[in-house]
Structure formats: structure tokens, C-alpha cells
Design a protein that fits this description.
It contains four helices and 15 strands. By secondary structure, it is α/β, with parallel strands linked by helices. The protein folds into two domains: 79 residues; 125 residues, Pectate Lyase C-like. Strands 5-7-9-11-14-15 form a six-stranded mixed sheet, with no helix packed on it. Strand 12 and strand 13 form a beta hairpin. The longest helix has 15 residues. The chain is elongated and about 80 Å long. The two termini are 48 Å apart. InterPro entries: CAP/MinC_C (IPR016098), MinC (IPR013033), MinC_C_sf (IPR036145), MinC_N_1 (IPR055219), Septum_form_inhib_MinC_C (IPR005526). Keywords: Cell cycle, Cell division, Septation. Cell division inhibitor that blocks the formation of polar Z ring septums. Rapidly oscillates between the poles of the cell to destabilize FtsZ filaments that have formed before they mature into polar Z rings. Prevents FtsZ polymerization. This is Probable septum site-determining protein MinC.
């Protein structure tokens, strides 16, 4: 005998009932089970005086038409008063991890071209003189950075710019602009990164990044 999968869970709370609707099953299967529980299996607990009902859709994003289908089924029980039908937003840590994810792009940014990105960017290729790469997060160039790079463009001073070969015409992090490259005291810069320290842009070897983000290293234990 096939086990019955429960797509609808009904829980009692202080001010009424919560209907928890499975967010992965087929929509029609969900509606059928909701109808069945209202008419058959849960008929006794769903009778009596007015009961306030909150419907939780989980991660499912229902259209207004689908929400109306739910309302129509629940309204058949005259004593059930729908207070809300809500989808649950992703947890904050999920949003943060999504923001922390790195997008990988490859190619070449030629003179006169501008590459823009929302979030952290790993670029596999070269940024030529006259080319520009802009991101709201960190910028990692696995190639030669010989044009202009602007990280943390929306004001994030914790952003960094890293490159396999660092010889840019200009670097910017948030609103802070680097000194001209010939003032860095570095002839050929390989595996370097730029960051903000005390309101000024600094350049250091990429293997020293653990000083900036010590917690990231500890997390690898």
C-alpha cells in the first residue's frame, strides 16, 4: 500500500489555525488534499464558532489567482475566516550567502569597454588600458588589470580589488581613488590586492589577505 504524502498540515495556534501547505508538490495535488481535509478527515475540528485561519505557502510564490483558489476552498466552511495567505521569505543567512557568492565571467575588456556587475566578480581575462570593470562587491581579475577597476561602487569600503597582474591606470574602492600607479613604489605587481585602511587605499600581496579577513581562515579548520 502506497504511503499517503501529506501536503497540507493543520496546526492549532493561540488565535486560530495555521494551514501549512507543501511548497514542492503539484498545485492540483495540494488543492485536492486541502479540499479532502476540509470535507472529510478534519471535518470535526473545523466546525463550530468562527475560526481564524492563516495560510503559509512556504517558499512557493503563488499568483493572485492561485491564492483565490485556496480562498474559495476554505470559504466553503462558513466558520473559517482567512486572515492571511503568505509565502515565507528566505532566511537572512541564505540571503547573505547569496550575496557573498562569486559570479565568474571570462573574456577581455578592451579600450572603451565597461563591464558592470552586481555582487562579487571573478573575471578570467585581461582588462586592457582604457577598459573599465565595475562591481558593487569585490573584483578578482585572473589576468592583467591594466585599465580601471572600481569595486564597492555603491559605497562598500570593505570591498577589495585583486589581480594576477596589477598594473591599472586607476583603482577605486567605494569613493576612494588610488594614487597614480607610479607612486605605489611597485614596478611589476603580481598577485596583489587593493583595500581600504584608515580611509586610504593600500596595496599588498594577495597571500596577506588573511590579515584583512582572519575569520575566513579560521572557518577552514
Amino acid at each position: 500500500m502506497t504511503a499517503i504524502k501529506h501536503h497540507v498540515t493543520i496546526k492549532g495556534v493561540k488565535d486560530g489555525l495555521v494551514f501549512l501547505l507543501n511548497d514542492t508538490c503539484e498545485w492540483n495535488d495540494l488543492l485536492r488534499e486541502l479540499q479532502h481535509k476540509l470535507e472529510k478527515t478534519h471535518q470535526q475540528i473545523l466546525t463550530g464558532p468562527i475560526i481564524h485561519v492563516h495560510v503559509k505557502l512556504g517558499a512557493r510564490e503563488a499568483t493572485e489567482e492561485q491564492k483565490e483558489e485556496i480562498r474559495a476552498i476554505i470559504r466553503q466552511k462558513g466558520n473559517l475566516l482567512i486572515q492571511s495567505i503568505d509565502s515565507e521569505l528566505p532566511a537572512q543567512e541564505d540571503l547573505e550567502s547569496e550575496e557573498a557568492a562569486i559570479k565568474m565571467l571570462k573574456g577581455m575588456v578592451r579600450s572603451g569597454q565597461t563591464l558592470r556587475h552586481e555582487g562579487n566578480l571573478l573575471f578570467l581575462g585581461d582588462v586592457n588600458p582604457g577598459g573599465t570593470i565595475i562591481s558593487t562587491g569585490n573584483i578578482y581579475v585572473m589576468g592583467s588589470l591594466r585599465g580601471m577597476a572600481h569595486a564597492g561602487v555603491d559605497g562598500d569600503e570593505t570591498a577589495i580589488i585583486a589581480a594576477s597582474h596589477m598594473r591599472p591606470t586607476q583603482l577605486r574602492i567605494a569613493g576612494i581613488i588610488s594614487r597614480p600607479p607610479d607612486e605605489w613604489g611597485i614596478e611589476e605587481a603580481f598577485m596583489e590586492f587593493a583595500y581600504i585602511k584608515d580611509g586610504k587605499m593600500e596595496i599588498d600581496k594577495l597571500h596577506q589577505i588573511h590579515r584583512l579577513w582572519p575569520e575566513a581562515v579560521q572557518g577552514q579548520s
